[in-house]
Design goal:
The structure is a homodimer of 440-residue chains. By secondary structure, chain A is α/β, with parallel strands linked by helices. Chain A contains 15 helices and 19 strands. The first copy, chain A, folds into 2 domains: 254 residues, nicotinate phosphoribosyltransferase (Alpha-Beta Barrel); 160 residues, Aldolase class I (TIM Barrel). In chain A, the strands form 4 sheets. Chain A has a 7-stranded antiparallel β-sheet. The first copy, chain A, has a 6-stranded parallel β-sheet with strand order 7-6-11-10-9-8. In chain A, helix 10 packs across helix 11. Chain A is elongated and about 85 Å long. The interface between A and B is large, with 106 and 106 residues. Chains A, B: It is an enzyme of class 6 (ligase). Chains A, B: It comes from Microbacterium istanbulense.
């Protein structure tokens, strides 16, 4: 199925107008970046690039798309002829999935003719803004949870396809499993889940429900104990499953108090190894507040799939350089009022001292040529990799493999952050973004 | 493409366990409802049902789904055999799309065997929670905008498929157009859009950009005038397009001040009919604050697709009645702590006095039989319609026709609200929900 219509109409009207006046063919550099970190977060997490690559493979205009554009008078005949053959033939470089980003980080750089690159704007932003918002929130939850595993179970609080993307983004940022089956199939993420309250209510008694679940899923299953009275639920659970019961889940109540009571009750009943999972309206703050409670794992729903208060990142996609009428390169940027930005092609490096990040160094070039690592910080780690070269997608970033690699990369680069970056309170970015002149 | 994996794993583990103990075949009634209105909103707007019907058509387990379930040991062989033949054969009744809802409104009632109905939980919630959150925010914006048209242009701030659903939900709730081409094609929503800042930056001068746009899109186009200096931009726009220029768009700055300045400048230049569109970070409050400004139309992005602070509704899907071991009906509900709900099958009516809504009347039945309109309010309007009967989907609610009908329905029923419901500030629901005993 074509993904070319997952886009704003104005990308195509600009394309048509640029074909008419010849500017369509001007070599151009677009940059996807964010002017700020939403919500006073101390770092952002890039996610979505692997999905974008998969969607880019299907980005073409078929008969159905061309007919709609013609019948609705959206573009002229010249543009229809161009779109019929459209395939992205430019290059895309940028931050790896799982990488951290800061204000001004050149997260993606898309190069091609204007026509080549302009039509990818909406799709690239849709994917990166959503997935990065979820990954950023998820990473904070993962830091708050420490060694305790986190499961994503927010599918019901996100549109049905976003739910799959959100599960993937949360996994990249440190979650260990998801409830979403499509995310399991498509991206290789471990899936989890046993039963809802309806399971207990379906049965004539809670005991019947627990017996049937243990018969079907084994003693190691997790029983949901809060449909009626939690104390009675726990007692029934251990009576039915025995002291080797895998776990109990609590989905309501004042969790620090309830978790302590349930742990004491389980221990008293001899179910010393039975785990406690809590799942009621958790976010990074609630998880942090449970650090001292006897909880073994967390299930997070609404807050992770909605970015914990910030459901979209504030990334934009801007033309930063293009060829001029004289054939030379021109750095460009919107100058007006509150949305100014920095023109020019950029190369980015995480500057490290003793292995700790101290700056996001962005080397700005007036020209088109690639730029070297700035020499001031010999420990600098280059942040950009090539995703697409001359229209060819590097498959390393796609599918199950790309997703697992992104998760490993995230957990690795998070270790570089200074300690203050791990706090949950609102603050400035953990490291400053420093723009320097490129060394040609 | 199958939609059956857009679901939580536990729906299928419950199904498998219920097949094993025979409860899978118990006639059951699930209800989709919300315990509260998010964010102190005074009413909610139902959206998504038409999309859910379309997704339900593709809800089946094919070879690929069955293989994943088997290979990952998620369900046993009996369940695989059941799922292979699965088609929803029950019934779905509920609120029309575009209808208003309040705490406890029985928005959808899904009836069938437990196995039939339990597996639809995640998908139904994903669609309704997302689409209704967007529609509820959009309706408030539509009220704030009054007669001025509103365009949805938030695709870049929502995941790529949610963007299409959000455009549809906003249209149902009173928006008049979208930037999203797929929403235009799939749901018949008018699309709009002309050019971005990159269009101006691509050219050697703003004047070149405006000339090329007018040549391609005609004098009636809308020119984006804030890439450099707004005053210069407006002057150039009118010089290039003439006083019959269709419109100018302003995407930054202090809008009440800028809009007044631009209107004065346009009038002075003789462009008396040139419209002003504003598009910078608008939400319902910013729109309301512009009511006295000379603005002709609004474009809304981030805030509408993210539900203006509440990106998901708080709808849940609960078993409310089922057959017991003795063949009789049993009303059921979770009793524990903070998430209690009302069991039993329900019929809902908007109680009206002199055409103004005074209550959401919900008649609760202990049994399975349909219930009559409560007699107290002869002006009551029944709120539930049949979407699916014995597995057959009523096509009236799908596609372009269903979407247009939902929009008309919404605008009609919004007229029934008491005046206080139209205020934007946080408050209680505009009308109380009154539970009454059903008249058999």
């Amino acid at each position: 199925m074509s993904t070319a219509f997952l886009t704003d109409r104005y990308e195509l009207t600009m394309l048509a107008a640029s074909l008419a006046d010849g500017t369509a063919h001007r070599p151009s550099v677009f940059e996807l970046f964010s002017r700020r970190l939403s919500g006073g977060r101390r770092f952002g997490v890039v996610a979505g690039t692997g999905r974008l690559m998969t969607l880019l493979r299907e980005f073409h205009f078929g008969d159905d798309e061309l007919r709609y554009l013609r019948d609705n008078g959206i573009v002229d005949a010249d543009a229809l002829r161009y779109l019929e053959k459209y395939r992205f033939t430019g290059s895309i470089r940028g931050y790896r999935e799982g990488e951290l980003y800061f204000p001004g980080s050149p997260i993606l750089t898309v190069e091609g003719t204007f026509a080549d690159a302009v039509v990818l704007e909406t799709l690239a932003l849709s994917v990166l803004n959503h997935d990065s918002a979820v990954a950023t929130a998820a990473s904070r939850m993962s830091i708050a949870a420490g060694e305790r595993p986190l499961a994503e179970m927010g599918s019901r609080r996100a549109a049905e396809r976003s739910a799959v993307a959100a599960a993937r983004a949360a996994y990249i940022a440190g979650f260990s499993a998801t409830s979403n089956l499509e995310a399991g199939r498509e991206w290789g993420i471990p899936t989890m889940g046993t039963a809802a309250h309806s399971w207990t209510l379906l049965h004539d008694s809670e005991e019947d429900a627990f017996r049937a679940q243990v018969a079907s899923l084994g003693t190691d299953t997790t029983l949901l104990v809060d449909t009626y009275d939690i104390g009675v639920g726990v007692e029934t659970a251990v009576r039915v499953a025995g002291t080797e019961l895998g776990g109990v889940r609590i989905d309501s109540g004042d969790l620090p108090i309830v978790a302590a009571e349930v742990r004491a009750q389980l221990d008293e009943l001899g179910a010393l190894n039975t785990r406690i999972t809590v799942t009621s309206d958790l976010d990074e703050y609630a998880i942090a507040a449970l650090a001292a409670s006897p909880v073994d794992s967390y299930g997070v729903g609404t807050s992770v799939v909605t970015g914990s208060g910030y459901p979209t990142a504030s990334m934009v996609y801007k033309l930063v350089a293009r060829q001029g009428a004289d054939g030379g390169w021109v750095s460009v940027a919107k100058a007006s009022s509150d949305k100014a930005s920095t023109g020019g092609r950029k190369a980015a490096f995480r500057s490290l001292e003793d292995g700790v990040a101290v700056a996001e160094t962005v080397a700005v070039s007036d020209g088109f040529e690639a730029v070297d690592v700035p020499s001031e910080h010999p420990g600098s780690r280059p942040l950009q990799v090539t995703f697409v070269e001359a229209g060819e997608i590097d498959t390393a970033h796609e599918g199950v493999t790309g997703t697992a690699a992104a998760r490993a990369h995230h957990l690795r680069v998070r270790e570089e952050l200074p300690v203050r970056a791990l706090a949950l309170s609102k603050s400035d970015p953990a490291i400053p973004t420093v723009f320097v002149d490129a060394v040609a």
